[in-house]
Amino acid sequence: MELPIYLDNNATTPLDPRVLEAMLPYFTSKFGNAASRNHAFGWVAEEAVDYAREQVAKLIGCTEKEIIFTSGATEADNLAIKGVFEMYADKGNHIITATTEHKAVLDTCKHLEKLGAKITYLNVKEDGLIDLQELEAAMTPETILVSIMYGNNEIGVIQPVKEISAIAHKHGALFMTDATQAVGKIPVDVNADGIDLMAFSAHKMYGPKGIGALYVRRKGPRVKVTAQMDGGGHERGMRSGTLNVPGIVGLGKACELCRLEMDEEAKRLSALRDKLESALTQLEESYVNGNVAHRLPHVANISFKYVEGEGLMMAMKDLAVSSGSACTSASLEPSYVLKALGLSDDLAHSSIRFGLGRFTTEEEVDYAIENTKKAVNHLRDLSPLWEMFKEGIDLSKIEWAEH
Amino acid sequence: MAYSEKVIDHYTNPRNVGTLNKEAKNVGTGLVGAPECGDVMRLQIEVNDENVITDAKFKTFGCGSAIASSSLATEWLKGKSIDEALAIDNMDLVEELALPPVKIHCSVLAEDAIKSAINDYRVKNGLEALELPKSHH
Question: Where would I find the NIF system FeS cluster assembly NifU N-terminal domain in this sequence (chain B) (predicted)?
Answer without folding.
Answer: 2-125
